[in-house]
C-alpha cells in the first residue's frame, strides 16, 4: 500500500509510515468519528440533485449486484482547505463502513469528491492493489475530470464505476476470497 501523506510504498497493514511517520491510528484518533457506519452514497456537500442521487444509488446497487464481493462507497464532501484529500479518503476507507455490508475492508473501495477544490480521489483495500497500480488509478480518475469541470458529478462517478468494473472483470476473479475459504 501507499502512504497517503508521502505516497511512498509502505508495508501492507503497517500502522506507521517509516518515511514520514504518518500514523493511521493517530489519523483515526484525530478524526473522532472513527468507524462510522452509513450509506454507500453520502453527500454532505449537497452536490447532487434528488434525481441524480437516486440515479447514483441505482448505479451503486447495480454494481453491488454485479460484484457482491466488493463494497463501493462514494462521498461528496466540502473539505476544509487544509485537509488533504488523500488522507481523508484513506481515513474513510479504513473508518467508514457501508451500512448492511459485510464486505471486508480489503475488498472495499472509497471514492471521495471534494466540492471545495473540485477534486476526486479513490482509495481501496489490499485486494485491489494486485490489479490496480498507482498509474492505472490515476488514469481512471483522469477520465472523470472533464465531467467534474462541468459539475456533472453523476456522470463522473458513472464513468469511474464503468472503468472499475472493467478492471474487476478482467482481473478480479483470481483475487476474491472464495466463499468456501
Ligand atoms: Zn509516509
- Give the CATH level 1 class: Alpha Beta
Major sheet, described briefly? 4 strands, mixed
Kindly provide the radius of gyration, computed on alpha-carbon positions and rounded to a whole number of angstroms. Answer: 16 Å
Look up the CATH topology.
Diaminopimelate Epimerase, Chain A, domain 1
Task: Give the key terms.
single chain, 181 residues, alpha/beta, Diaminopimelate Epimerase, Chain A, domain 1, 4-stranded mixed beta sheet, two-stranded parallel ribbon, 40% helix, binds zinc ion
Structure description:
This protein is of the alpha/beta class and 181 residues long. The protein has a single domain, classed as Diaminopimelate Epimerase, Chain A, domain 1. Helix content is 40%, strand content 16%. It has a four-stranded mixed beta sheet, sandwiched between helices. Helix 2 packs parallel to helix 7. The protein binds zinc ion (ZN). This is TPM domain-containing protein. It comes from Persicirhabdus sediminis.
Mind sketching the topology for me?
Layout: H1 24-30, E1 36-38, E2 41-43, H2 50-66, E3 71-77, H3 85-95, E4 96-98, E5 108-114, E6 119-124, H4 126-129, H5 134-142, H6 145-149, H7 153-171
Parallel strand pairs: 1-4, 2-3, 3-5
Antiparallel strand pairs: 5-6
The structure holds zinc ion.
Amino acid at each position: 500500500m501507499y502512504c497517503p501523506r508521502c505516497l511512498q510504498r509502505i508495508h501492507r497493514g503497517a500502522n506507521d509510515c517509516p518515511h514520514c511517520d504518518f500514523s493511521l491510528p493517530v489519523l483515526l484518533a484525530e478524526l473522532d468519528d472513527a468507524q462510522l457506519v452509513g450509506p454507500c452514497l453520502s453527500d454532505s456537500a449537497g452536490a447532487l440533485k434528488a434525481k441524480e442521487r437516486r440515479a447514483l444509488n441505482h448505479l451503486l446497487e447495480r454494481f453491488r449486484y454485479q460484484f457482491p464481493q466488493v463494497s463501493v462507497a462514494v462521498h461528496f464532501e466540502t473539505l476544509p482547505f487544509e485537509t488533504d484529500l488523500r488522507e481523508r479518503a484513506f481515513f474513510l476507507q479504513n473508518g467508514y463502513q457501508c451500512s448492511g455490508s459485510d464486505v471486508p475492508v480489503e475488498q472495499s473501495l472509497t471514492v471521495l469528491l471534494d466540492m471545495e477544490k473540485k477534486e476526486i480521489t479513490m482509495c481501496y483495500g489490499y485486494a485491489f492493489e494486485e490489479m490496480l497500480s498507482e498509474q492505472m488509478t490515476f488514469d481512471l480518475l483522469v477520465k472523470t475530470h472533464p465531467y467534474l469541470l462541468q459539475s456533472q458529478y453523476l456522470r463522473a462517478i458513472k464513468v469511474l464505476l464503468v472503468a472499475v468494473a472493467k478492471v474487476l472483470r478482467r482481473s478480479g476473479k483470481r483475487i476474491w476470497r472464495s466463499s468456501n475459504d
